[in-house]
Amino acid sequence: MRAPCDVAEFINDRPISTFQLRIVALCFLVVAMDGFDAASIGFIAPAIRSEWLLTPTALASLFGAGLAGLMVGALTFGPLADRVGRRTVLTGSVASFGLACFVSAFAPSLPVLVALRFVTGLGLGGAMPNAITLTAEYCPQRRRSTLLTLMFCGFSLGGALGGVISAALIHDYGWRSVLAAGGAVPLLSVPVLLMLLPESARYLVLSGASAQRVARALARLGPAIAFDETQTFTVRDTRPRGGWLPVLDLFREGNARNTLLLWLTFFMGLMIIYLLSSWLPTVLHSMGFSLRAAALVAALLQTGGVVGAIVLGVLMDRLDPCRVLAFTYCIGCASIFTIGHTATPALLCLAVFVTGCCISGSQTCISILSASFYPTHCRATGVSWASGVGRLGSIAGSVAGGVMLSGGWSNSTIFSLIAAPALAAALLMHRLARSRRGAASACVAATPKSAASCRCSRNDKR
């Protein structure tokens, strides 16, 4: 009888194909739409505030609703994807946030817009973690970090485009046009995703799909691939499932401490990112920048995120990824502090760009890192719950920004406080590096048989 084919090893042993690059490109598109939405709401906030005469506290409810939806969507749709499939949840999420965002353009009042932002957030919360998971499960281990980094750069690029497009649309057509555009693109992309995006082959094996269906999925990796009718498939990292609570698996097999450290770092990073993306244009406008100039300067945050993610992705393939991120968060802490303590426009722009490189870039890479923490049967849950818990930080950041601006706090005080979570993230990453190094040392000390099956090695081929 023919030996079962391990899906992960089969993907790892083959060169990267056009089919895999297409998956990266499609998921790049999904996270770019997420990044556009996350950034554009901050860019249109000053215009909404002026039209509806809102206080910063009232405006904070608009940010908080979208972020609350993101959190609920991530916590809900990640485990659902481990049950019904990554492709199904991903395309459904894109359709839902596109429709809700488009309808938001016609909101007659703040309460209606807040409700629609929550629904938009639900879809966004389910889209990004599943885009990461699906891409990771089709990428060979030797190039996984690079391809995931490039894919996730869509978020920062979408955010940067959000600033440029918002500046043009607000000036000519008003803030509602930004929401209409942000909803129309996802809706138009849904048929493309349904036609071109495959289901994860690893998920198909674990869900009990027929061998023929798995074979068809893997055959798309190259024109010369063919399986006979007797071929069966397996996934090496199969583990018993935690019933209808797969989140419990994130704390098993020695993962509890690392999971908590990862979640806390997500919390700190997203607190900073959403506080800045939500309120930086408003702060710059209050400093005398025009709405257009404020949007363009704030877009440097996302542009820096693209550059930083690419550089950090290369460094993480060569050095201890947790130590790379710890050092980067330290630089980000200094650059955030600089934003609040300079009156020189050129230095301000540089500080915003460096902050994007270090904070947004690190957030991209830690999201990629989370995909390597867990086995296939709970990977979508692990990625989405890290993101979902991190959304608590984004909510806290958005609300804190409104409180600080309403209280009339000085820019130097505000940005000094924003720098503190970056320092905390650096310390958490340093602790995670020590934890993972200790686990790897335990693997080296194990017998050859147990070392071969140990799941905590940095070279784990999951």
Automatic annotation (TrEMBL):
This chain's protein is named MFS transporter
Q: How does it sit in the membrane?
A: Multi-pass membrane protein
Which is an annotated GO molecular function term of this record? carboxylic acid transmembrane transporter activity
Q: Where in the cell is it found?
A: Membrane
Can you tell me where the transmembrane regions are? 21-45, 57-77, 89-108, 114-135, 147-171, 177-197, 260-281, 293-315, 322-339, 345-371, 383-403, 409-429
Q: Which GO terms describe its cellular component?
A: plasma membrane
Q: Which InterPro entries match?
A: MFS, MFS_dom, MFS_trans_sf, Sugar_transporter_CS
Q: Which residues form the Major facilitator superfamily (MFS) profile domain?
A: 23-437
Q: Name one Pfam family in it.
A: MFS_1
Keywords for this entry? Membrane, Transmembrane, Transmembrane helix
